[in-house]
Specification:
The complex is a heterodimer of chains A (268) and B (388). With 268 residues, chain A is an alpha/beta fold. Chain A is 31% helix and 26% strand. In chain B, strands 3, 4, 5, 6, 7, 8, 9 and 10 form an 8-stranded mixed sheet that branches. In chain B, strands 1-2 form a two-stranded antiparallel ribbon. A two-stranded antiparallel ribbon of chain B has the order 11-12. Classes of the chains: A alpha/beta (268), B alpha+beta (388). Chains A and B meet through helix 2 and helix 5 of A and helix 1 of B. The structure holds flavin-adenine dinucleotide (FAD).
Chain lengths: 268, 388
Amino acid sequence: MPVNIIVCIKQIIDPEIPASQFKIDPGTKRQVQGSHSLVISAYDQNAIEVAVQLKEKHGGKVTAVSVGGASAATALKSALSMGADEAILVDDPAIVASDQQGIAHVLATATQKVGVFDLILTGCVSGDWGDRAVPAFMAEELGIGCVGFVSRIEAKDGQVVLRRVVEDGYELIEAKTPVLVSIISDETNTPRYPKLKDIMAAGKKTIPVWKAADLGVDSERIGAAAARALITDVYLPVKESKCEMIEGDTPQEQAVKLAARLRELKLI
Amino acid sequence: MEKFHGVDYYEIEELLTEQERLVRDTARTFVDEQVLPIIRAHHRAGTFPTDLISKMGALGFFGANLTGYGCAGVSNVAYGLMMQELERGDSAIRSCASVQGALVMYPIQTFGSEAQGDRWLPALARGEAIGCFGLTEPDHGSDPAGMTTRAIRVRDGFLLNGAKRWITNGTLADIAVIWAKLDGEVQGFLVERGTPGFQATEMEGKFSFRASVTSELTFNDCLIPEANLLDKAHGLKAPLMCLNQARYGIAWGAVGAAMACYDAALRYALSRIQFGKPIASFQLVQDKLVTMLTELTKAQFLCLRLGRLKDAGRLQHTQVSLAKRNNVAIALDIARLARDILGASGIVDDYPVIRHMLNLETVKTYEGTHDIHTLILGRDITGISALE
Ligand SMILES: Cc1cc2nc3c(=O)[nH]c(=O)nc-3n(C[C@H](O)[C@H](O)[C@H](O)COP(=O)(O)OP(=O)(O)OC[C@H]3O[C@@H](n4cnc5c(N)ncnc54)[C@H](O)[C@@H]3O)c2cc1C
C-alpha cells in the first residue's frame, strides 16, 4: 500500500558553529546569521530519511513543506535531492515572528492544501530553539493523532507501527493513519548524502511559494501580535569557574568538610 | 574535532548556485564522515581506502562534470568544489577522482568508440571499474613527446611494448589508458587488466601520496585488440587535453588542502598558550595567518573564474596552467606556514598539516611541474618557447 507523506522541515542557522561565534541581536532577540550557513534542522533531516525510506519500500509520494524566508528554498532543494518528490515553501511576511501555535496553524493549513496524506513527519526537537511544541499543536489543529520521538516506522494496511524512544528502551505503538509523528534519530535513519544526479534533478523542479492568503490562514492567529509566548530575554550563558580550597588537618576532616560544603551547595 | 565550516572571507558562497552549494555540501559531509576518520591510518600504512571507491561512485563523484552514461553532468564549478572538498580530505582521494573522471572517462568519451563508452563508462562512473592513465615513463616525465612505449600493428590488433612509471591506481585498475607511439604518432590504447604481457607493480618508499597507489606498468608484447584503440586520439594533443581536465580539478583541489591547513593553524593558534597567552596574539603569528588567508582567498577567486570560463566554453589551457601553478604553490606555502605555526605538533599526524604538506610536493610535480607551467605561460605571453 503506497504511503503519502508530508515532511515539515525548518531551515536554521548551522547550530554547530563554535560558541564564540554565537551572536544575539538585542533588538529582535534572535541569533545573528552573519556568515554562518543555513542548514535543515537535524531531526528534520532524519524525518526526510524516514519518509524517503518508506516511499522506497511501499511507493507513494513525499512532499516537503517549509515555512520560512526565500532562503528556505535551498533546504527544500536539499530535501528534493534526498528523494522528496515535491516541495512547497510557505513564505509570507505576515507569518514572521509567529509563535509555535502560529506556525502550527500555518503548517496545518498548508498540509490540508497539499491534500491527502497518511503521515505527517516532523523532527522531534528544533535545532535552534529546542522547541517540541509544533507537532502536537499541528496534530490538534488537524484533529489527528500525534506520536512523538519515534525512530522507526513500519507501514501496513491503513496503520503504522511506530517505535517510540523512551528513557529506558522503546515502545511499539500501533496507530491508524493519518497520524502525525515526530522523528528522533537512530542508526536506521541517518540522513543520506544527496547524490549528484539527484541534486541535478532537484534543480529542475520548481518549488511553489504559498502565501498565508492561499491557505486560508486565520490572520488573527499568526504574527507577533497573535503570539501567546513572548521571549523577554535571550543571552549567552556566562561560564564561570572558581576554585575553593577545603581546609582541614586530616584527610578525614577535609572529607567531612567537603561533604558538608557539597550538601550546602545542593550538589549532593 | 570541530566541524569544518569552509573558509570564505569574501562571501564567495553568494556567487555559487544552489546546485553548486549542494554538491559541495555532499562532498564536504562525505569527507568529514567517511574520509577524515580513516585517512590517518591509511596514510600511515601506505594504503588506499579502496572501500571508498564504490561509495564515491554511488554519490556520482566520478566523471561528475561529464554527461551521459550515468554521469551527473554538474557544472564545472560544482565539480571543482567537489574536488576542493575531496582534497581537503587527502590529495589521494581527489587524485583517485581526477584520474577516474578526467584521465580515464574523459578520453574514453572524447576519443573512444561508442562500444568502448558503453562497456566502460557506466561501470567507471559507478566505481565498479577502476581506471588509470599511463603517460609518464621512467625516462620521460616533463617531455612525454620523447616516450619510447611503442605499438606495432599486427594481424589481430597491436603489439604493445614499453614501461610507464608513477601511475596512480595502476595496480588497482581494471582498465589502463596507455599512451604509446604507433608509426611515430602518439595514440591511446585501452589495456585491460589480465592482458598477457601486462604487469603492474606497486611503487614503495613514498613520503608523499602515501594513501594513494602509485605503480609501475610494463608491457611485454601485449596484444591489444583493434577494438581497444582510442581511434579519435591522434598525437600528444590528446593526452594533453586529458591533463588539462585533470589540472582544472587540481587547481580547486589545492584550495581544499590549503583550507584544511589554514583551518588547523587558526584553531591551533587560538588554543595554544605560550608566554601566558594564545600564540594567535603574537604579531608574527597573525602575519602568517593573514598571509595564508589572503593567498587562499585569491586562489578561490581564480578557481571560480576558471570554472565559469569552462562552463561558458571559453577556457584556455594556459589559464588552467596559471591556476594549477599558482594554487598548488600557495597551497604548499600555506601548508608550510601551518606546519610552522603548529610547532612540534606540526610534524605529527595528529593534525592533517604534515600530510597535506607532503602530498602537495607531489601535486607540485605531477600534471606538469610548476616550472613547466611557468614555461607554458612564458611561451604564451612572449611567443618565445623556452621549453625545448
Ligand atoms: C604520486 C605521483 C603520481 C603520479 N601519477 C601519474 C599518473 O597517474 N599518470 C602519469 O602519466 N604520470 C603520473 N605521475 C608522473 C608525473 O606526471 C611526473 O612526475 C611529472 O610529469 C614530472 O616528470 P618527472 O618526474 O619525470 O620529472 P622531470 O621531467 O625529470 O623533471 C625534473 C625537474 O626538472 C625540471 N624540468 C624538466 N624539464 C625542464 C625544462 N624544459 N625547463 C626547466 N625545467 C625543467 C622539472 O620542472 C623538475 O623540476 C605521477 C607522479 C607522482 C609523484
